[in-house]
Structure formats: structure tokens, C-alpha cells
């Protein structure tokens, strides 16, 4: 290298163009650094959709949404939408439970509802959620299955409750429980007769001749929470749930939501451990939510 | 529903369950005739009237584009995801559109399971063929667009497919996929010697033939026509003309709905008092 | 109500464990609460499929097999439960872009199955030398219609119970890693179950420590 010739300093790299529109900047940061984006909101004590950490989204229920079904309901929890339709068929009761019918609950998360789900048979996560949901229904029965008996040991109603998630913006479980409860309340069955001679069950095919309703035993309300960076967020949206390190679901009976009444289920999944006071906080919030849902008469 | 192999990935009830038989008195009631004394159909329509259309775009906010279509009792929802990266990558000049047509378990009178059967696969192909002429595949080369059509309530299976075609093209437009034109579809049935438009589920039992026609109104091109049953050539042409007229009307409704949705979206994002949550200086993009 | 075999409400069944029982696996453990026995095999860290690869941590795959019956959604539920909890307890960031496969096989099921599975997992992971944040233990309880709380119930007791509870605790941090309670129950009973479970978990952890030596 020739002496005295110091190499010219390299020109400074041109600064990256910053979008001037704050909304576009926010959207870009949300996509690239989702955790930091959410942390900024939580530090200010609020969530990206302007909710308080302990607030649930609005629940809207539209009963009898599907006319081909014996009972149906559409539940909107914020933008999460779940449609539940119940169709009744007739079957032989189980040998060990000859005086009761069946309630078969299937929660389906089709690829329609979110970009995360791929077409084909349900993924393991979807199956696990469907099983958790069915488990809740089985351990805290909503309707008295004995009323579904047509003839002991010979015939009973089978209620197929198929739940379809139409839009997944987080917390499908809560919306699904609400849809199922509302759908069961709207079920209308025809009067069925069992003919001993030929073993056939007959019922009216007239859709207007369905006088039988189901007696409701309890009104479960599911309240799910997500733990993100030690913040407890009620009713997480899809973005918040993706960043959650733990999740809690509490099932409370809306008709019996006093502090001394029993809880129906508590499930805590995921890694971050939760202490007893934190679980108690979830349970208290869940009870409040159940009272609010009950007093709003949504599931009446 | 009886099935030899139980679906292990779903919750199952008893192995066999059936719909109850009709009551003794009702069993003798005949199928109601197509037209009553006033020459009107059971729901009050004329022979050539199509059921009114209700359209809502953006029904699935999680999707890139979506639409909900209701025609009488038929309810169809469609969501479009894409363009997104394509695993198969068969053709580097063109993108790929896959359509999945699905009937919800509770859509028809008899419950169907979750497993995809031949009918759904066939209709998925029908939808793909109906939409293909309208889509500009070159605009999203090396990417895949997935279209999911679900029939929530089926009052006339062929009519649901036609509603599915309309819903799918609305959803594709809502997603911003480049298209040559919107595709509208409608159906007709052949009952006795008449051409009857848009049959419901009860009326479908009386037909001896049917026609499904998908039409691009601005280009004046038929993207797909499927005719079944044995009918004379003039009757079939008559049906095609009726269908084309009905499709043109549906096309108008669809474009109006899309324009209205676009106006609404524009008025909502008009920057008024945008609170800047993020300071540009502490977060680098 | 007295329990069969004369156990008191707060006594656990005799525990038995073994490690290194599968000589082809990188680590294995078998844990038994009297009759309920679960065998756990750990394979890893091994090569992972490209689509499951995570750049900053190991991918966990959990497979659960029952001793009778075909797999159904119940096994998927147990798998997702186990996977989410184990993901937090295993130091997955020490083995990025690998796969750790944990397989469970129920040998005998007489109640408290999920707890036995968690405990077997702890033994197997230690046997495999997979780094853990801390050891962990799981306990099941059930509450009968008359209000009695039974620790470590058998299958018969679980069936008669009004509510069933499963807890997972670790040796270092306060708080439950995993809670699954279903069936109607009072909150004060739930709190008692939490406390009993925390105490019992310590007992099991001590047992596992002794079993290691």
C-alpha cells in the first residue's frame, strides 16, 4: 500500500427507510416482534384490543341458527365464532346404562377458521381440545340423559352435538361451551314411540310438531386465561395465546356462582407454574364472568 | 350412522343410530306436488324465480378473504387463505388454487360424519373447474391459494354448490386475488316438461334432470355447465338461457356487495386520531 | 368411608421404580403406584424432521399408549398435557434443532395414571441425561360425594369419586406446573387438595432422589 494514502472512509450505509405512517409501523412490529409488541401494551396495563387484562370479550348468542337441526346456536366471543348444531337420532342404549340416552359432542376446528389448521384429519392439538371439551361435558352434564330414554333397554335418543369453529381468534373453548349450552336449550324433539312388535321407533317428521324440550341441569360457563410474561390475561385472542407460556380454564355453573358453590372444572396447562393465590385469582374472575353472563340472560 | 371403521380421531357415540320412522298416519302422505293450485311453488315462488341472495363479505376475519352467502335456507361460508408458500411447487409460472368443498355434519336432513366422502370430493373438483377460468394464475406464481367452502345448511344440494361457487369468487375477490371476472352460478331442474329454477331440497326429489351453470357476466362466458338427466336439446338450451339471466342478476348483487364492503373498509381506516403506540426510534424494523 | 386395604385417606400407595429397563433407549424409567405402572422411554436428542425443527430449542414428541384399546382422542389429550408440561421442565434450549421423543406405555392401570406417567417421565429423563430445570413429581387425588379427600386413588375410588384432581409440582419453584380437576368440587376442598398434593410431591421427590443412589 502506497504510504500516505489512507483509504477513504467507506460511505455510511444509507439509513433504512422508516415508514412514516404509525399504523403501518405498528403492524410491521406486531408481525416481526410480537412479544415485544404485546409487552409494550401490558406495561401500560392494557391489551392491544384496548381491553383490561381481566376483561372478557362480549359474548353474543344467536339461537336456532340452523333449521335442519333439532337445536342449534351460534356463539360470538369477540370475533371467535363457533356454531353448534344438534341432530337427534335413535339407537339402542348401552348395556350398562339402559335407562339413558347419549350426548356425543364433537368440536371441530376446520382449516376454514384459521391459517394454522391444515386440511385433512384433525391435528393432534385439535383432537386434544375436542377431548378436553367432551370431558367437561361428561363430568358436568348439562342435560339429564335419562330424559332421552324412549324405552328402557330398547331405544333412546342420541344427540349428536357438532360444533364447528367458523373463525378462530383465540379461546375457542369458551365460545364452544357457550354455543353448546345455548344449543341444548333450543333443542326440540318430537314425541317418539317404541313399537315392541317390530322394534321400530316412530316419530313425527313434521318439523313443527316437536313438543319435547330437554330439562337443563346446569349452565356451565368456561373462562380461559393465558399467562404471558407473568401477566394473567383473561379470554386471550389468537395473538396473545400464541405467546402464552401457560393457560388456565375454569368451568363455573352460571346458576350457582357464589363463592360457596362448587366449581365444575379447573385445568391449567403449559409450563409456567401458578401458585395457589394465582389460581384463586383465576377462579374469582371466572365466577364474576359467570355471574355477568347469567345476569345478562344470554344463556336463559 | 353405521360405519365399519370408526373414526378414531373424533368422539364417537353408539355404533349404529338411525332416524326414526315416520308416524303411521304420516307415512301415507305423498310428496307434495311442485305447484299448488295458483301455479306457485310451495314457498310462493314462480317457476322461474330464484331465491333471494344475501351476501356478507369478511365473515371470517382470520382469513385473507371470506364470504357468507345465504339463499333461502341454504347457508354457505367460504374462506380463502393465500397466496401462501406452496409445498408442491409444480409449475413456476402459475400459482395453484385448491378448493375444498365440505358439507357440515348437520347440513342435511340426515347427519353425515366428518369423513370426506365421494360427493364432497366431486363437488370440490366442480368448484375448482368453475373458478379456474376467472383467476389470473400468473399473478401469484409459485404460491398456493386455498379455498375452503363449507355448507352450513343445505336446502337443495346442487343449489348449495352453486351458492358455493358464488361465495368462493366473492371470497377470492375479498382476498385481493386478481381475477378476470366474478363467477356467479345458479341451478335449474327439469320437472315433467318444465324448467324450474333453483330447486329446494324437497323439490329436488321430483326432478328428472338438473343443470348447474357458472357464468362470468362481464366477459359473457360460461365457465362451467353440468347437465344431468335425460332432456331434449331445446329444453336444455332454454334452461341455459334462464340460468345465464339469473347469473347476470346474481353477478350484479355480488359486485354491489363488494363495492359496499370496500367503501366501508375505506371509511374505517381513514386516518383521524391515530394514537402512535410505537416510537420509531426504539424499535428497529 | 374406609378405603380398601385399610389405607388412610392421606396415605399414598407403595411406590416402586426402576431405571434403565429398556436397553435400546437412551433413557428409560418405570414408575409404579402399587398396581398402576407406567413405562417411559426417552430417545434423544436425535435428528429432527425439517418441518418440526426449531432453531432455538429441542422439539418434543410425546407418544402415549394404553395397555388396552386402540388410540383415541383421549391419548391425544394426555399427550398434549404431558408435552406442554415437559417442555417447560426440560432445558430444551441446550439442544436446539433436535428431537427428544418420549414414549409412554401403560403396563397396568389402577387409577392415578397421569401421575404415574409424569413420575416415570422424570426417572426416564434423568436416566437419559437430558438436562432438566428441576426434578418434578405428580400426585392424584379424588374427592368423594361425602367430602372425603383420598390421596393417590385406585381405579375403583376414582370411579366412585365426585371429582378427580391431578397436580404436578417441582422441587425448586413454588406453584403447580399442571392442574387438571374435573367434576363438581368446592373451592376450599380444591385448596386442600393443592396443599396435600404439594406435600406428597415432596415425598415422591425424596423417594426419587433415594432411588437414584
UniProtKB/TrEMBL annotation, chain A:
GO biological process, alphabetically ordered: exonucleolytic trimming to generate mature 3'-end of 5.8S rRNA from tricistronic rRNA transcript (SSU-rRNA, 5.8S rRNA, LSU-rRNA); nuclear mRNA surveillance; nuclear polyadenylation-dependent rRNA catabolic process; rRNA catabolic process; TRAMP-dependent tRNA surveillance pathway; U1 snRNA 3'-end processing; U4 snRNA 3'-end processing; U5 snRNA 3'-end processing
Region: Disordered, residue numbers: 1-23
Keywords tagged on the record: Cytoplasm, Exosome, Nucleus, RNA-binding, rRNA processing
Domain of life: Eukaryota
Pfam families found in the cross-reference section: RNase_PH, RNase_PH_C
Subcellular location per the Swiss-Prot or TrEMBL entry: Cytoplasm; Nucleus, Nucleolus
Gene3D superfamilies: GHMP Kinase, N-terminal domain
GO cellular component: cytoplasmic exosome (RNase complex); nuclear exosome (RNase complex); nucleolus
Membrane keyword on record: no
Signal peptide: none
Protein name according to UniProt: Ribosomal RNA-processing protein 43
Biological source species: Allomyces macrogynus (strain ATCC 38327) (Allomyces javanicus var. macrogynus)
UniProtKB/TrEMBL annotation, chain B:
Pfam families in UniProt: RNase_PH, RNase_PH_C
Name the record gives this protein: Uncharacterized protein
Family as reported in the entry's similarity comment: Belongs to the RNase PH family.
A GO MF label: RNA binding
InterPro entries: ExoRNase_PH_dom1 (IPR001247), ExoRNase_PH_dom2 (IPR015847), ExoRNase_PH_dom2_sf (IPR036345), PNPase/RNase_PH_dom_sf (IPR027408), Ribosomal_Su5_D2-typ_SF (IPR020568), RNase_PH (IPR050080)
Subcellular location: Cytoplasm; Nucleus
Ranges for domain Exoribonuclease phosphorolytic: 50-178, 181-242
Native source species: Allomyces macrogynus (strain ATCC 38327) (Allomyces javanicus var. macrogynus)
Main location: cytoplasm
Gene Ontology annotations for the cellular component aspect, listed alphabetically: cytoplasmic exosome (RNase complex); nuclear exosome (RNase complex); nucleolus
Keywords associated with the record: Cytoplasm, Exosome, Nucleus, RNA-binding, rRNA processing
One Gene Ontology biological process: U4 snRNA 3'-end processing
Entries under CDD domains matching the protein: RNase_PH_MTR3
Source species, domain of life: Eukaryota
TrEMBL record, chain C:
CDD domains (alphabetical): RNase_PH_RRP46
Gene3D superfamilies hit by this protein: GHMP Kinase, N-terminal domain (3.30.230.70)
An annotated GO cellular component: nuclear exosome (RNase complex)
Keyword Phosphoprotein belongs to the record: no
Record keywords, A-Z: Exosome, Nucleus, rRNA processing
Main localization, broad class: nucleus
Exoribonuclease phosphorolytic domain location: 12-131, 136-197
Domain of life: Eukaryota
Subcellular localization: Nucleus
InterPro entries per record: ExoRNase_PH_dom1, ExoRNase_PH_dom2, ExoRNase_PH_dom2_sf, PNPase/RNase_PH_dom_sf, Ribosomal_Su5_D2-typ_SF, RNase_PH
GO MF annotation list: RNA binding
Any one of the GO BP annotations: nuclear mRNA surveillance
Family: Belongs to the RNase PH family.
Protein name per the record: Uncharacterized protein
Organism: Allomyces macrogynus (strain ATCC 38327)
Lineage: Eukaryota, Fungi, Fungi incertae sedis, Blastocladiomycota, Blastocladiomycetes
